[in-house]
Structure formats: structure tokens, C-alpha cells
Amino acid sequence: MRNSWLVAAFVAFATIYPTAVFSDYHLFQATMVLVYGVAILGMAILVGFNGQISLGHGAFYAIGAYTTAILMASWNVPYWVTIPISAVVCAGFGFLIGLPALRLAGHYLALTTFALAVAIPQILKHRWFEDWTGGVQGLVIDKPDAPFGLKLSSDQWLYLFTMFVAVLMYLFAWNLTRGRIGRAMRAIRDQATAAEAMGINLAMVKTRTFAVSAMYTGVAGSLGAIAVAFVAPDSFSVFLSITLFVGLCAGGAASIGGTLVGAVFIEFVPNLADKVSKAAPGAVYGVILIAMLFLMPVGAGGFLAGIWRKIVGQRAG
Amino acid sequence: MEGLIHQIISGIATGGIYASVALALVMIYQATHHINFAQGEMATFSTYITLLFINMGMPYWVAFFAAVAVSFAAGVAIERILIRPMANAPVLSAVGVFVGLLLIVNSLSGWFFDFTIKQFPTPFPDKPLFGGFISGHQLGSTGVTVAVLVAVYLFFRHTSLGLAMRAAALNPVSSRLVGVRVGWMLALGWGLAAAIGSVAGCMVAPIVFLDPNMMAGILLYAFAGALLGGIDSPLGAVLGGFAVGIIENLGGAYLVGTELKLTLALVIIVTVLTIKPSGLLGRTVLSRV
Fold it and tell me: Are B96 and A245 within 8 A, CB to CB?
């Protein structure tokens, strides 16, 4: 990419400026934007690039969050070690759920994943797992302090840490979607039969895309659990899945940069709308979701990407 | 043994409610090939409207039928305003619109009628019948559900409007050529689905109490019922709804306990979709490429 120095400069600025200037609360919000960004990125890989609709990614977010919380609370594992473990666990779950999903398309997959999202809080609360999950009360974990004797508050350090992980995840996604596998994913989305005739192994690409997608959202769940320092079944209700879906549609399904727009949207719009009424965030989400689908079918990400291409004179595609 | 019979009877009573919601889902699926994720929230909103009418001093049944009429009109309006423009949109946009509708209706319920859990009256005598096997409300609501199902069946089989609606769903192009107004038929289908949902909401609210998220679990069971019976078969959806009601009650009592009832619905959905995606009575869809 010709403008990679621009992106690098933007990332450097977004790393240093908030750490130096923001209050702890605003840093926490910025951290959550990154967390949601990675979660939505996972959905974008599955929904946007591979055309498999999921309304249940809150379940993977919950699994990631609980993996981290259980490892930290029960086995005293350092927080940064839990991230790769949670990635592996969630990829495994994603692969398993991807297997029946192979036979489902469109609405049916949306329906199945929706059912998963509705059921997950009940599973987390269940007494069989209560020793690990803490049941309805959930688990409280410690916020990590800055290492190496750095003079940073824990919120500042968490922001830097999350930024580091997020940059890695975005780089990986950028390369993945632009390489051979990314082309295979998009070929399946656009014309599955033709893709198979071209020698793409449908089952393999679809299930592995599901696994990668679940891994992204699971890692986001882990980061989110560390940032919030608390997990409980009712924070992972079906509305979390719907929120992520709204973020995805707001940003544009097949747009990597758009996921950040979506993340900013779901982090800040509820706060603004909350001032009107307790019920308003849902209504505002719903209205904006439908308005986006009617007016800006490519999402804000696609819309901004169009403008970006005009500015830098790059050709579409 | 007595416990088993008791579980089966209350399974049939709740199953009737799942059957109604499943029937509403199937009506919309048949006409538009979309799954209405907002069906449950729409039914909840209708139930609130019934409660509003009752609190305004109307007798129960007047309020009930008034709310059914309002729901019908709202269903038609939603189809005309929101769903019509999405007729040829990709699946993702369609699902997005339904999710948006779900969010809007859910938060409007909370906004207008607040989030506290409310009691909802039942028009039936609240005493055990037949030696305690069934409560008055269970018997009454099963009766109402069966009446609705029979009425819907008669409507589609024996009226010309019902025939036109079936034709519009089955083959829109040919129907248009013989003079059926396909667009209006789809809107009527939405209205009917909303009206059936309203009945189901009023019948279930005295049992589970009324709050904005009342129907979330019920919608899941209705999905399971509709898929079990075959998403494109109204009769299948009804039977599937009753079956899921019985499975849920027996499973909850003897197998998994009440905490995992929703997971049971998930298991039914995944099992049906992986083993026999067309359901028990549905048609297998073959597509040419």
C-alpha cells in the first residue's frame, strides 16, 4: 500500500496522544473502542468477506472473556498469557460451530447463531460450571499494573497493551483478506458454485473462516474482560451480539477500516442516547441501523473508503 | 405417572403458544422467504397495547380484539414502509432490517410502558380443573390457540382471499397475471402474522408476566418449532410448536432442569438443521445452478 506511512503515522498518533492527554475514564473508553473494533473485525471477516451471517458473535466474545477471567482468577495466569490461550480456545469453538454452519446458509445460519446468543448466558450460569464461572455473580479480576517500573497508570498501560494487540490483529486481517485465502473467501461469498469449480475447498475455507472469526472476537472478549476487570453472564446477553451486528452494519460489512467506525459508534452512541431515555439507545440503534441499510448500503467504511480513493487517486477495488 | 401427565398437559398448553408464534413466522417466511426476528417483540408490544386498553376501562375481550385489530394494522404498515423496499436486497440487509425492527420495538415497549415487570390479567377462572391436572388459564389459552389455528386454516382453505394469498406466496408472477394484487397480499400476510402474535402474547403474559423482553425465549422455541415442522409448512409449524412445548416441559422436568431450557431449544434447532433441514413436513428445496 502506497500510503502505509500515513496509516503508521496515524497509529503512532493514536497511541501516544490519548496516553499522554486523556483522563483515565476517556482512556478506558478508547480501550473499549479498540476492543469492539477487534470484535467487529472478527465479524467482518466472516460476514463481510465470507458471506456467512452471524447474529451470535457475543457468544464468542463471552467465551474469550471467561477464558481469560477463569485463567486469571483460578490459576493466577498473567493477563498477557491468557490472550493466546483464549485465541486457541475460541478458534476451537468457532471451528466446532462452523461445522453445522457448513450446511446452513443465509437466514438459517443467522437463526442458529441467534439461538446460540440467546442461550449462552444460561450456559454460563449453569451449576455444572459454577466452580469456574462464579455463577450469576461472575468473576472479579485484578487490573494489571504497568510492568518494568514504568510510570503509567493501569488504564494508560492497558490502552497501550490493547493498542499493541489490536494493531497486530488488524495487520493480520489486512494481509489475510488480501491474500490467496482472502480471495477464496470472497469468491465463496459471491458465487459458491463457481468457487468450488475453481478448486476452492468450500468446507475447509468456510469452517476455518469461522474459526478465525471466532478467534478475533474471542481475543476482543479477553481484552474487554481485562479492561473491565469483571465478567458476569448477564453482560453477554443477546444484546451484545446484536450490538456487534449493529457496529458491523454501521461500519460496512466488508471494510477493515469501517470496523473502527462501527466500534466508535457502539461505544459512544449509547452514552449520548442514554441522556434522552433509558430505552433510547435501542431505538437509536434500530433507527440508525435501518437508515444505514437504506441510505448507505456499503456502510460508513465503504463510504469513507470511496472518499479516500478519490483523495489519493487510487482506483477502486 | 401423574407428574408425567401433568408435564405433558402443561407442555401442550405452552406448546399452543409456540405453535401460534411459529405459525406467524411461517406465514411471513412463506410469503417473503424472510425470517422475522422481530416477531416476538411485536407480540410483546401488542400485549402492552391490550393492557393499555384494559387499564382504560375496556372489558377484557373488547380490549383483546381491539389490540388484535391495532396489531393487524401495524403489521400491514411495517410491511409497506420497511419490508417492501428490502424485497430484492441481499440477505444481510434483510436480516439487518429485522434486527433494527427488533431493537426499535423492544425499546419502544420499554419507553412507553417502562421496564418493570407487570401482571397481566387472564379472562379465565383461575382454579384447577379435572382433579388438578390443568388450570383454568391453561385450558382457556389452549382453547383460544386452537381456535386461532382452526380459523387460520379455514381462512386459507375456504375463502377466496385466502386462496389469493396462498397463490401470491407460491407464485407471485403468475398470480399477478391472473389479477391478484401480490403486494397487498404480502402486506395482509404481515398483518395476520402480527395479529396472531398479539393473541399469543396475551395468552402467555399471565404465565410469564409482562416485560419488554418477555418473548425472547418464546421466539426461540417458536423458531425451533417452525424448523422442526418445516419452515414452509403451516401445519408442520403448528405440530412442531406443540412438540417443542412438550419436549421443553419433559426435558425441563426430567432431563436438563429449568436452567438449560433455552439451550434445549438451541439443540433442537441445530439437530433439525443438520439432520433434516427441511423439517418433518417441509418441502426439500433443490436449486439448479
Answer: yes
Report all structural domains of chain B as residue ranges with CATH numbers, in order of start: 2-275 (1.10.3470)
Question: Which spans in A102-237 are helix H?
Answer: 106-125, 130-133, 154-178, 180-190, 192-197, 202-228
Return the number of CB contacts < 8 Å for A and B: 134
Distance between CA atoms of A66 and A232, rounded to whole angstroms? 9
The DSSP element (H or E) to which B134 belongs, if any, is strand B134-135
pTM, full prediction: 0.83
The residues near A309 (Cβ < 8 Å, ≥ 6 apart) are A315, A316
Structural element, H or E, at residue B81: none
Name residue, grid cell 418493570: B116
Q: Give every CB contact of residue A218 below 8 A, 6+ residues apart in sequence.
A: A42, A60, A61, A63, A64, A67, A86, A87, A89, A90, A91, A93, A94
Report pLDDT for B73. 94
**B135 bridge partner residues:** B128
The CA angle A307-A313-A315, to the nearest 5 degrees, is 85
Q: What is the average pLDDT across B153-166?
A: 87
Look up the ipTM and state it: 0.79
Distance from the B123 Cα atom to the nearest Cα atom in chain A, whole angstroms: 31
